[in-house]
Amino acid sequence: MSEEKDTQTDSDVAPDPAPEEGLAGSDNGQEIDQAAAQASNEQVNELREALLRTRAEMDNLEKRTQRELEKARKFMFEGVFRDLLPVIDSLDRGLETAAEQGLEEEGLALTRKLLLQTLERHGLEVLSPEGESFDPQWHEAMSAQPNSEVPAETILMVMQKGYRLNDRLLRPARVVISS
């Protein structure tokens, strides 16, 4: 019977954990804490990078918007200026006709001058390039005439003045060039 008692006590009693197992458990907890801290740091770094990218995108958007607004302000009256070009041409023809017929042209000349001054204050520039070198960016050659007195592709005559608004061509100057 004593053997049975010894066997029962051995099987009924739970073994005590070894001291090494207890230490391994606490190391495992520290490893988990370190892994969680590292994961948190990585997530913080990712969020920081995302925030920096978002800030950079916002700065770029603000700069682009400023440029577009400035461009819109510069050219907001472009359509009106284009519509006024035939009026200026008409005033020029009226001045020519009045001069040919010997009529008083002072009032018409003052009106034209006032209109051009007003438009020039808002960025309009008149292209009247007689005697200059031909530039296809700003001029439209209507014809070419042989002329030995000036170099080739020099503008001999302006048939219709050109106009540009803040370095944007509204209408090219129509010209006759030397060949």
Which properties best describe this structure?
single chain; 4 helices; 179 residues; 3-stranded antiparallel sheet; Nucleotide Exchange Factor Grpe, Chain A, domain 2; alpha+beta; elongated; 3-stranded mixed sheet
Oligomeric form = single chain
On the 0-100 scale, what is the average pLDDT? Answer: 85
Radius of gyration: 44 Å
> Share of helix among residues?
55-70%
Instruction: State which percent range the strand residues make up.
Output: 15-25%
Count of DSSP H/I helices: 4
In terms of structural class, how would the helical and strand content be classed?
A: alpha+beta
Largest sheet: spatial strand order = 1-4-5
CATH architecture label name of the largest domain: Roll
Low-pLDDT runs: 18-25
- Provide the CATH topology of the largest domain: Nucleotide Exchange Factor Grpe, Chain A, domain 2
Overview of this protein structure:
Helix 3 packs antiparallel against helix 4. The protein has 4 helices and 6 strands; from the N terminus they run ααααββββββ. Strands 1-4-5 form a 3-stranded antiparallel β-sheet. It has a 3-stranded mixed β-sheet with strand order 2-6-3, with no helix packed on it. Helices cover 60% and strands 17% of the residues. 6% of the residues are buried. A hairpin with a 2-residue loop joins strand 4 (162-165) and strand 5 (168-171). It has 2 domains: 18-75; 78-178, Head domain of nucleotide exchange factor GrpE (Nucleotide Exchange Factor Grpe, Chain A, domain 2). The longest helix is centred in the first third of the chain and has 57 residues, at 19-75. The protein has helices at residues 2-12, 19-75, 78-101, 106-121; strands at 124-127, 139-145, 155-160, 162-165, 168-171, 173-178. With 179 residues, it is an alpha+beta fold.
